[in-house]
Specification:
Layout (H helix, E strand, L loop, with lengths): L2 E8 L6 E5 L5 H12 L3 H15 L19 H11 L13 H10 L1 E5 L4 E9 L9 E10 L5 E10 L5 E3 L10 E3 L2 E3 H8 L16 E3 L3 H6 L5 H13 L1 E4 L10 E2 L10 E11 L2 E11 L4 E8 L4 E6 L11 E2 L8 E6 L5 E6 L8 E3 L11 E4 L4 E3 L2 E9 L5 E8 L7 E4 L20 E2 L4 E3 L2 E8 L3 E8 H11 L1
Antiparallel strand pairs: 1-29, 2-3, 4-5, 5-6, 6-7, 6-12, 8-11, 9-10, 11-16, 13-14, 14-15, 15-16, 17-18, 18-19, 19-20, 21-23, 22-23, 23-24, 24-25, 26-28, 27-28, 28-29
Length: about 475
Amino acid sequence: MIVKRLPIRIEPDPTRVILQFLDLNQESRVNSLLDKVFSLTENEVMLILKEVLAEFESRHAYIEKPLAGSENEQSYFRKILLANFAKIKDHLDKYSKISLNRKLLIGAYCTKEYSVESAALFNPSIVPHPVQSDPEALKFIISLRATGEGHISSIEFRTGTINASSEIILDEKGDYLITPDKKNNNITKKFIAERVNNLPGFNPNALASLPDSFKAGELGALTNKTNTDSFELDVLKDMVNCDYDLEFTHHVPLSARVIFPSANCEAMGMEDVRFVKFTDQGTSCYYATYTAYDGTSIKSQLLETTDFVEFKIRSLYGQSVHDKGMALFPRKVNGKYAMISIQDGENISIMFSNQLYYWDKSTKLDIPLKYWGFTQTGNCGSPIEIAYGWLLITHAVGPLRKYVLSASLLDLEDPSRVLGTLDEPLMTANTKEREGYVPNVLYSCGAMINNGELILPYAMSDSATGFATVSMDQLLAKLLKSS
């Protein structure tokens, strides 16, 4: 079987930075900083601010409105500085009228740049773009795991086209990144009740005083009025914090958008997102599972979007939501949602559910073990529907923690039944791919089929991303021969 590696590489670029709040952590440090800034004259403030803007503003070039005298008319860079200034407003009671320049300068001292992909850009998934304008070409979106300082992972995007000659052409990525606004979304009591219904030790009476609907930011004030026990209170806070909505500025190109962790459960990373175009009763949207990591524990999250501008993020729950590598089927199977997962850190399982967010039971897939996968097997994204069944691209871990890519074929009507599995790896790292942040690893979070070819973006050694294509005729011949 011929696997064609393409001369396309998506490499990490440390110059792509975002702006973040610099938390000084100690009240004494914040007060000391403010005293120093307020010791400056207005002329000194203006000169220092001018120097800061000259050095940094051009690195964040998406301008929403031209700078004028009003605080409501600021560049994106200055908008962030003012937002970060506002985060320390509780320390400003002793200061009287504060000029706009001084607010911007204080905001600059409370801001840092973060290079989201300085360490790696890897683990891609690929889906068709929601807007297709050329009938002879296929436009696509690739999601990527970007990893920066502190090994914190976020979600980035690239776009491209497969033309009539089956050539893959990536669009220019641009030089800048922008983060979305986190919305103060509505939470319903019904939504919470469904999630805590089967949670051991949770007293449902803790929900009695909650209104039928409230804003996420109102939870603290609502629970302060009750005698809610600390366990129930912690559960509620975690649930509301980890279930949120995001919105990007519409005119910003997709390759400039980055989803950086903004919930406690994902403070140390949003890892290995697996996108799939999901269709139900003629309506399509995009779902993506990912692993949220807080530095100690993991949580499975589900991201939903129709346009890659607005995103809804919700936690998955149930007895079978406790490990990594979940991937949703692109449609319901026999009237139920279906999911591929890993339940024991070692084997691939399949799950079915009547509810998108609730997964209670799983069954191990009987995929024949090969020596190059004795340590672990897992999915490489969502199953792909073809005439012969469900094509499942997998990863397998063997001696020396060597990750290879493989494939299995599942029955179309009963995907818990394995029809065939490759007798040899589909791909293994070559000499140019095996060296990197994590040696000897090939990995993917999602592929797609176009014009008789499997389009397979893949990560090499947890560092960068490449592309390969495989003839579907050859792949199916191997899979059906093994059945």
